[in-house]
Design brief:
This protein has 132 residues and is α+β, with helices and mostly antiparallel strands. The protein is built from five helices and four strands; from the N terminus they run E-E-E-H-E-H-H-H-H. The chain has a four-stranded antiparallel sheet with strand order 3-2-1-4, with helices on one face. Helix 1 runs parallel beside helix 2 and helix 3 crosses helix 4. The mean pLDDT is 92.
Length: 132
């Protein structure tokens, strides 16, 4: 999962914005720090969206500089999309696991699905979880 950002140079700063994520803006003192700051800002915002069940915009903008989202965050986002309008409890029942087990899969700090679990999720939701 890749998002792209734009850089604007001011007198002493490099300002980073994400056209797909209007709520994100960060800055760095040097070009060497821009990628690190951009990744931290993007992933922090995506984690908050996951935790608060806020909408996550699709990555549509393809100009600028690309940033790869970490696999755990990308998986949690894709799983939430696959769940769609179901509650986490309904999704857990569909997959055949406890609510707590399912909830852990949508938590980017705790998710670590096995291949068997990914297979079960794909069968239950009818979609592939290839987000790397």
């Amino acid at each position: 999962m890749t998002y792209y950002y734009n850089i604007e140079k001011t007198d002493n700063w490099y300002i980073v914005t994400f056209p797909d994520m209007r709520n994100i803006q960060t800055c760095a003192e040097s070009m060497e720090k821009v990628d690190k700051m951009a990744k931290e800002a993007l992933e922090g915002s995506l984690i908050v969206c996951l935790q608060k069940d806020l909408p996550i915009p699709e990555a549509q903008y393809k100009n600028g500089t690309p940033i790869e989202v970490s696999p755990k965050i990308a998986f949690a986002i894709e799983l939430r999309k696959a769940r769609a309008q179901r509650s986490k409890k309904e999704a857990a029942q569909t997959v055949g696991m406890t609510y707590q087990q399912y909830q852990r899969l949508e938590n980017p700090y705790k998710t670590n699905p096995t291949l068997e679990m990914m297979y079960r999720l794909q069968k239950a939701f009818g979609c592939k979880f290839i987000c790397l």
